[in-house]
Fold this protein.
Amino acid sequence: MSLTETDLLPGTRRALTHRLATGQVHGRAPSVVAAVVRGGRPVWVEGRGSVDGAVPDGDVQYRIGSITKAFVAVLVLRLRAEGLLSLADPLGEHLPGTAADQATVADLLAHTSGLAAETPGPWWERTPGALRPALADLLGEPAQVHRPGERHHYSNPGYALLGALVERIRGQAWDEVLRREVLAPLGMTRTTLLPVAPHAAGWAVHPWADVLLPEPAVDAGRMAPAGQLWSTAADLARFAAFLIDGDERVLDAEAVAEMRAPACPPEAAQWDSGYGLGLQLLRRDGRLLAGHTGSMPGFLATVWTSAEDDLGAVVVGNSTAGLPVGALAADLLAAVAEREPRIPAPWRPLPTVDPHLLELAGPWYWGPVLWVLRPLADGFLELTPMSEGQRGTRLRPTGDGGWTGLNGYFAGEPLRVERDPTGAVSHLDLGTHIFTRQPYHPARSVPGGVEEAGWRVP
């Protein structure tokens, strides 16, 4: 049997099966299903345990809890992409009258709104949403436990408000908007607000005996955007592929990369974890993972992706606690990355040659420090320092002859190409950092000037 570029080797598949099997046994989970994504498609899907007397497969639904938040974040970023809101807008500008009027949309996405973590009692995850019929019922006193933007404080009601924001702007229930704008384009036909057979039942496992207790599966009502969705390992594998590469029908790759970028500082003792725009971030064994964990009574789920490795991993199970789905998904992803490291795409020349970009390519000096500027196949630029310990930046064209930095120190900073009276490139100005073709070129606009005597021997 021949293997394609995305197929897994038999030894890797056995390692994945072994890790899943030991995870299910040690976690004492009634059932668990996992998937690994590579090259934009699932390359391994397997279940353990039993649902309705059979081993579950990638088509069996499980409740995915807070992974729902990542979907809501996608809907909000779509509104931003259409110019219907800015992430800097106060929520009250679009959804007035809540306790979060002064928090920005970005604050809510990144859990820096300062809102309370939970609704007033009784606990929303085990009680019907009908107990909280209005937005005003989602927050008690104090509704604000920190100043907006002060710190990361996970807030379930905050995402309920984002769901309401989507409904206000779209004029339609958030789950219907989700189905039409995200799920349908991505082919996620088995992701729904309420369970659709075949689906697993939610169970609590006794801490000291191998017996089960059924958990309630209530409709969370207005709190649904915080954790209501049901999905399958196969559907979440499609979502993982989207979180790696984006999809022009939903959100482009640049917007998805923005979701994966840290949007708030982590707690002082948690420098290996953080939060982006609707996505949790985790640094594990030197690998940056982005995705989300989820839990609801009777269910646990995780989606992790590593864009650098072009890998994603999904784990869903039907146990309230005990099954370490986050660690399990990270282990599955790492098993493939370590046994079968990503093979880079073949080098190819640029599809077209832009003389203006070619004119910029090559060495540039910031003071005495050498940098190299390269045009990329996607029309962007890459500016890379040749000194160790420094990181470069990618630059996106702004359409007016300029560029904007996308990452690192120069993220968001403008790059201007300055020319002399003859039209030749004189120097580059990147956020007031002047780059010249020679170190401290005397004829260029180096801040502070350059001594006329030039270089010397002391």
